[in-house]
Amino acid sequence: MLYTKPTLLGYMQLVSIGACVVLRTACILCFSLFLPSVYAAQLIMIEEDHCPYCQRFNDEIAPAYPNTTEGKRAPLRRVNIDKGWPSDLAHIEPETLTPTFILVENDRELGRMYGYQGDEFFWFLLGELLDKLDADNMETGSQNSKP
């Protein structure tokens, strides 16, 4: 569908609605690359090939995790130790036990969960880790507000 649109010079221009949607989406994506993330926290999952507990986590938790409140507060980042330790995590102590979940915020480790014993236990322990995230944010906020 085409419609007319006034330009800065006052002329009418025919513009495709589809082209406008594509252009608007491209602009949003470009600008979002330069904006800081609202959530600086991430939950790093240390895994390895052929780990049965990692597979169980992948079956029971992983599909829904990004859609949960917890997943939005601390998105999951996977690190396969068979492929080596990432250089951007050099400040985090490497782990060999899989799965291990490490809560990190602003390049600081706040806590770890070792192993995977089932969904209820995972959510409970993750809640405790995220409480540390809240406590750390409150502490940082109170330090920043001191005169």
What does this structure look like?
This protein is α+β, with helices and mostly antiparallel strands and 147 residues long. 39% of the residues lie in helices and 24% in strands. It contains 4 helices and 6 strands; from the N terminus they run E-E-H-E-H-H-E-E-E-H. The chain has helices spanning 17-34, 52-60, 69-73, 119-144; strands at residues 2-6, 12-16, 41-47, 76-80, 100-105, 108-114. Strand 1 and strand 2 (12-16) form a beta hairpin. The longest helix is centred in the last third of the chain and has 26 residues, at 119-144. The radius of gyration is 22 Å and the shape is globular. The chain starts with a strand and ends with a helix.
Q: How do the strands line up in the largest sheet?
A: 4-3-5-6
Helix/strand/pairing category: alpha+beta
| Secondary structure tally, helices | 4
Main beta sheet, described?
A: 4 strands, mixed
Assigned CATH class of the largest domain: Alpha Beta
Order of helices and strands: EEHEHHEEEH
Which blocks of ≥5 consecutive residues have pLDDT under 50?
Answer: 19-23, 27-39
Beta-strand portion reads 15-25%
In helices, the fraction of residues equals 25-40%
Ends apart, CA distance between termini: 59 Å
Number of self-contained structural domains: 2
- Secondary structure: number of strands: 6
Shape: globular
What key attributes describe this structure?
147 residues; alpha+beta; Glutaredoxin; four-stranded mixed sheet; 24% strand
Quick recap:
The chain has 147 residues and is an alpha+beta fold. It has four helices and six strands, in the order E-E-H-E-H-H-E-E-E-H.
